[in-house]
Amino acid sequence: MSQRASFDVLVVGSGASGLAAAVSAERSGARVGLATKGSIQACNSAKAQGGIQASFGDDDSPEQHAADIFKSSHDSADMRLVEILTGDAQNAIHWLEELGVEFTRDSVNGRPSGDRGGYRLARCGGASAKRLLQVGDRTGHAITKALRDAFEAGGGTLFANSPLTAIAPGENGWRATCGEHELDAATVILAAGGRCFRVAEERGELSTNHPNATGEVTRIALDLGAQARDLDELQYHPNGGAWPETMQGYSIPETTRAYGAVLLNADREEFTDSLGPRDVVSQAIFDEVEKGKGVETEDGRPAVYLDTTRIAPDDAEISLPYMLRRYRGAGIDPLAEPLLTYPVLHYQNGGLTIDTDAQTTLEGMYACGEIAGGTHGRNRMMGNSLLECVVFGRRAGRAAAEKASA
Fold first, then answer.
1. Is 260 part of any domain?
2. Under 8 Å between Cβ of 233 and 350
3. Which of 171, 197, 328, 358 is most buried by a 10 A CB count?
4. Coil, strand, or helix at residue 168?
5. Which helix or strand (DSSP H or E) is residue 141 part of?
6. The model's pTM
7. Same domain, 185 and 294
8. Residues 175 and 271 in one domain
9. What CATH number does residue 79 fall under?
10. Which of residues 325, 345, 365 is at a domain's end?
């Protein structure tokens, strides 16, 4: 049944950024509508496994985190956004904990070890310190569930199975067509993710993405005149599952390498720094295969080895339980034999240009999460996407609610 409705803030997308924005906007006093292409559970964020970065380590700081991001971006990230991301990180973690997220803790003889808070921290690719917090290896699932529960416990209105197909300036803000619904809102927050699933299909490649990641909302905003940056730069996840067939496109958590796994060529030789930035590691794998040093899967796909047998069993059981279950269910024990891996299309690094409140170059239109550009520049470190979703989702929600009430 079609519906006409009016809101202070309309959020488009139900991943971590959209949910964080909706919760924050409502808690700022706004009447909130949330429109999503499929069900509220259908998103890339829930598939994120590795973790979320925040500088809780005793040898770490927001400034150090920011420096790592800028270096990994090849000096292309917007430092205004980076400093907000890293400066708000600890607060974002505590907010998630208040919503019910229980991050994995670590201790020695019952006492917290090496950080402020006792978190189990891992060092991810491109990082100069251990700062990756985890909920096992289903961090995105835990975060989106907590955010979804918070949204559903509030007074926001959900429009499921209602993709945004058109939006234009209205009398008092924006008028959006979402599925069969005509929705008016003083402000709009675009949180609809990237386009990597569609691009992978067009290229005949594998992708880690949810099938909803097709990028129409970015195009709609660009057609309205919104500015964007770095849209040409898509990221490959270095460790896509290559075999068995049921694991193809699965993103093997990069925490496998944080806990000791290394990349090996056909001669079982290490050929790159396994904890390098994502684009560097992915390119090293491409180059090794091009040199004839790769291996071939049973269905003829290129691959190299990820030697997961070097991971301590205790670490694997605590931080990689889902990965172990997936592979053991497919007949492979990652602690007994190496995995076959190859880069898979994963993330849209660029996106709509935003300011420090997540507003796009269009007045009253905000963007957060993967659809927004600048925070990662042309290459994203792992563990920063979920952080970006929460930090800038909250900022977008607060700012959109404030503008709507002005």
1. yes
2. yes
3. 358
4. strand
5. helix 139-153
6. 0.95
7. no
8. no
9. 3.50.50.60
10. 345
Query: Range of 178's domain?
Result: 4-197+349-405
Same domain, 383 and 307: no
Do both 263 and 361 map to the same domain? no
The token pair that represents 390 in the structure block? 């929460």
Same domain, yes or no: 193 and 79: yes
CA 6 – CA 29 distance, rounded (Å): 15
Asked whether residue 119 falls in the same domain as residue 177, the answer is yes
Q: Indicate whether 268 and 398 sit together in one domain.
A: no
**Cα pseudo-dihedral 123, 126, 85, 209, rounded to 10:** -90
Per-position pLDDT tens, the chain of length 406: 578 999 999 999 999 999 999 999 999 999 999 999 999 999 999 999 889 999 999 999 999 999 999 999 999 999 999 999 999 999 999 999 999 999 999 864 444 455 677 899 999 899 999 999 999 999 999 999 999 999 999 999 999 999 999 999 988 899 999 999 999 999 999 999 999 999 999 999 999 999 999 999 999 999 999 999 999 999 999 999 999 999 998 999 999 999 999 999 999 999 999 999 999 999 999 999 999 999 999 999 999 999 999 999 999 999 999 999 999 999 999 999 999 999 999 999 999 999 999 999 999 999 999 999 999 999 999 999 999 999 999 999 999 999 999 8
Q: Environment class of residue 225 by beta-carbon count within 10 Å: exposed (0-12), middle (13-18) or buried (19+)?
A: exposed
Does residue 130 form part of some domain? Answer: yes
Q: How far is residue 39's CA from residue 158's CA, in Å, rounded to a whole number?
A: 10
